[in-house]
Automatic annotation (TrEMBL):
Transmembrane segments: none annotated. Residues 3-36 form the Small EDRK-rich factor-like N-terminal domain. Pfam families: SERF-like_N. Residues 1-29 are annotated as: Disordered. This is Os03g0439800 protein. Residues 11-21 have a biased composition (Basic and acidic residues). It comes from Oryza sativa subsp. japonica (Rice). InterPro entries: At2g23090-like, SERF-like_N, ZNF706/At2g23090_sf. It comes from the Eukaryota.
Amino acid sequence: MGGGNGQKSRMARERNMEKAKGAKGSQLETNKKAMNIQVIFRGTFWARQWSLLLKEEDGQKVREGCLILEKRVSGFFAMKGWNLRKRLGD
C-alpha cells in the first residue's frame, strides 16, 4: 500500500538534495555579492550626506553622480541575476 512517514521523509530528502545540487553558486558567493552592493550603496549614502555641506551647485552635482552610480550598479547586478527587491540580510 502507501509508504509510511519514514519513506516520505526519505523521498523528500532526496528531492531536496537533487535541488541543492542543481542550484548555482554557494551561500558564500551570494554573501560576497551582497557585500559588494552594500558597500557601494553605503558609499553613495555618505557622499549624499557630504553633499549637504557643499555649496548648492556642487552638492547637486554630487547627488546626481550618486544617482547615476546607483542606477548603473543596480543595472549591472540585475543583469547578472541579482534580485534587488530582496533585502540584503535575507
